[in-house]
Amino acid sequence: MPSARHEKLDVLIRRAAIEKRVHAVARQITADLKGQRVHLVGVLKGACIFLSDLVREIGLETSIDFIAVSTYGAGNESSGQVRMLKDLDSSIAGLHVVLVEDILDTGLTLSYLLRILRQRKPKSLRVAALLDKPSRRVKKVKADYVGFTIPNEFVVGYGLDYAERYRNLKDICILRLPPPDVLAERIPEP
After folding, report:
1. Measured between alpha carbons, how far is 141 from 145 in angstroms, rounded to an integer?
2. 180 belongs to a structural domain
3. Which of 74, 93, 143, 169 is the most exposed, having the fewest neighbouring CB atoms within 10 Å of its CB?
4. How far, in Å, CA of 186 to CA of 190, rounded?
5. Average per-residue pLDDT in the chain?
6. Residue 26's domain is classified under what CATH number?
7. Which of 67-81, 97-111, 126-140 has the lowest mean pLDDT?
8. What are 177-180's contacts with CB under 8 Å, separation 24+?
């Protein structure tokens, strides 16, 4: 499905492995919060598919909400600044909250969200990240539940995007962009 922009996709994690790991993470959350109601907070937009699959596998009473932040913009490098785009719809005070993230990369977003959410007095606050890229960590944060630890590659699929593209891929793929000079050669001059 790569576009005419000469981008290349290499499969990193296949759909079957993702399904198996999501099931295992859900079992662990169910065991850790046995008998409790769990409130999942999905970080939009990237975590929406992971959250959708995860919530159906958790064997507890669950509720969900969403929060949206931005650190990337349209590129493939973090801007380093986190800004809130959408806040929660309801209070999390007294709830067992699991923050559901697509990828734990530099830790800037997660550090910001944990600080904000702790101020709202949840009974407990845990993090489930589909992907963990520890080689890029800038802030000292970690997830309680991790789907996969991955190398320092730019990945798309299963909710993760590049400029709002590729979220619908069933596998998680490494996106390889052509060098800037290759793109310049292909653009005809007026």
Report:
1. 12
2. no
3. 74
4. 13
5. 90
6. 3.40.50.2020
7. 67-81
8. 177/5, 177/7, 177/76, 178/5, 178/6, 178/7
Cα 76 from Cα 73, distance rounded (Å): 8
Is residue 188 helix, strand or coil? coil
Q: Given this model, what pLDDT does residue 37 score?
A: 97
Structural domains counted in the chain = 1
Give Cβ neighbours of residue 137 (< 8 Å, ≥ 6 apart): 105, 106, 107
Active-site positions? 105
In-domain check, residue 164? no
- d(C-alpha 43, C-alpha 54), whole Å: 13
* pLDDT score recorded for residue 81: 76
One-letter amino acid at 112 equals Y
pTM above 0.70, yes or no: yes
Lowest-pLDDT choice from 25-34, 77-86, 87-96, 177-186: 177-186
State the residue range of the domain holding 121: 15-151
Assign 186 a pLDDT band (cuts: 50, 70, 90): low
Q: What are the tokens at 25?
A: 């993470």
83: pLDDT strictly greater than 90: no
38-44 β-sheet, strand order: 83-86, 62-70, 38-44, 96-104, 124-132, 145-149
Q: Is residue 190 part of a domain?
A: no
